[in-house]
Amino acid sequence: MTQPLKLMAIDAEDVQVISSVLQDAIVPACDMTFHKKDASFVMAVQRFKWDGINPLLPRAANDTDVYERISCAIEVQGVQQVQFSGMNPNDPAAMFELLALKLEGDHLYFIFAGEGQMRLTLADWSMKLADFGEAWPTTYCPSHERP
User: Fold this and answer.
1) Which residues contact 14 (CB under 8 A, 6 or more apart)?
2) pLDDT-derived band of residue 146, with 50, 70 and 90 as boundaries?
3) Nearest CA among 107, 91, 101 for reference residue 129
4) Distance between the two ends of the chain, CA-based, in angstroms?
5) Which letter does DSSP use for residue 86 in this model?
6) Number of neighbours of residue 120 by Cβ within 10 angstroms
7) What does the pLDDT read at residue 141?
8) pLDDT single digits (tens) 69-127
């Protein structure tokens, strides 16, 4: 059993690392919360464990490889505002696929499949990521190949 992943971000380089870890995470809309009074944003995602794949090993052609997902909490402190574009965060059944995070000035962007985007306006910020619970198996490995 591997140790749960725990990371912290305080600059753009750190955000790039967290972005690569969270690529292809599934984000339920009901698990995203902005605490305006505390200037924090929290969300729980189902992270694909890219860190558990050995890229040097060949992949099976018949999709019988077993991969893993794990629950992961993300907390961003110093959030002044949260805005959404191309997605409905108020639909409790909505699920979003996270593609990347990008820090530009005082804005942190969460970029989702289907052109959805969430923008956090930041001031004196930090971000923490922490896995929790047990990982579970999946035979689906996200692919970003274009037809």
Assistant:
1) 7, 8, 127
2) very low
3) 101
4) 37
5) S
6) 22
7) 85
8) 999 999 999 999 999 999 999 998 999 999 999 999 999 999 999 999 999 999 999 99
Q: Token pair for residue 63? A: 């999709």
Which amino acid is present at 125?
W
Nearest Cα residue to 9 out of 102, 72, 71: 102
Amino acid at site 42: V
Backbone phi and psi for residue 21, each to the nearest 5 degrees, phi listed first: -70, -35
Collapsed DSSP state (helix, strand, coil) of residue 50: helix
120, 135 in Cβ contact below 8 A?
no
**Cα separation of 18 and 5, whole Å?**
11
User: Global pTM?
Assistant: 0.88
Query: What are the CA-CA distances from residue 79 to residues 27, 53, 68, 89 (Å)?
Result: 19, 33, 31, 17
